[in-house]
Amino acid sequence: WKKRGTRVWHVGARASQLEEAGDFVVHNFMHESVVMIRQKDGSIRAFYNVCRHRGNRLVMSEEGGVSEHLTCPYHGWKWNIDGALDWVQDAEDFPQGNPCGKLRLKEVPCETWGGFVFYSFDPNAAPLMEYLHPVPDLLGNRDLANWKRVVWRTIRVNTNWKFASDNFNEAYHIPAVHPQFEGMIDDHYSTTLFE
Fold first, then answer.
1. Cβ proximity of 24 and 63 under 8 Å
2. Bridge partners of 53?
3. Each residue's pLDDT tens digit, 30-55
4. pTM of the prediction?
5. DSSP E strands: which ranges in the chain?
6. Residue 112: beta bridge partners?
7. Contact between 98 and 85 (Cβ < 8 Å)
8. What is the CA radius of gyration of the chain?
9. Is residue 1 very low, low, confident or very high in pLDDT (cuts 50, 70, 90)?
10. Could you tell me which of 7, 106, 120, 122 has the C-alpha nearest to residue 48?
11. Which residues lie closer than 8 Å to 1 by C-beta, 6 or more apart?
């Protein structure tokens, strides 16, 4: 599983979560942690959520914002939102010289589609649109980039993973199993238009 997880594109966030430069979202996958962060030019970049000095996590919260830097909580190293190392304490005391301007956070490929932010652990990942094909063509007229998330629920279920994916592919079970959601989910065959 780990080997396959390194070769695919992962959905890490919605672009709408990253409104301003310095806004970030952290996505954890198995033992890895990635921080996606809005840049000053409006782009989004993704980095391993790890300080290059001693390997500590840079960001502990799931999302938030910084004005200029991600600061390591252990030694205070300041990494610019573009990944460049800008400040270290006692910079003159390093045998190899001041590391500022020489070190960068380890970047991972990051692309967006449909308002979703994707990242990959594979430095040679196929372009996102190629990887997602034919989904972008099939959903091209849905204006996904402008959709807003209105509910976020995390539910842990002690079951086989196929159970969850099967249930999220149909809503026929909702009236019987989740009657509390009927007011929120209108998926009845009489009101659904199939094209």
1. yes
2. none
3. 899 999 999 999 999 999 999 999 99
4. 0.78
5. 9-14, 23-29, 32-38, 44-48, 63-65, 69-71, 78-80, 85-87, 107-108, 110-113, 116-120
6. 117
7. no
8. 21
9. very low
10. 106
11. none
Chain CA centroid to CA 174, Å: 29
More confidently predicted of 165 and 77: 77
Determine which helix (DSSP H) or strand (DSSP E) holds 129, and give its type and residue range: helix 128-132
pLDDT at position 180 is: 87
Map residue 174 onto helix, strand or coil: helix
b/e map of 95-116 (b: 16 or more CB within 10 Å)?
eeeeebeebebeebbbbbbbbb
Task: Give 70's strand partners.
Answer: 79
Q: Is the pLDDT of residue 2 over 50?
A: no
At 128, the amino acid letter reads L
Query: Could you identify the residue written with the tokens 């959905």?
Result: 11
Note whether 72 and 86 are within 8 A (CB): no
Q: Sign of torsion, CA 171 174 175 181?
A: negative
CB 82 within 8 A of CB 21: no
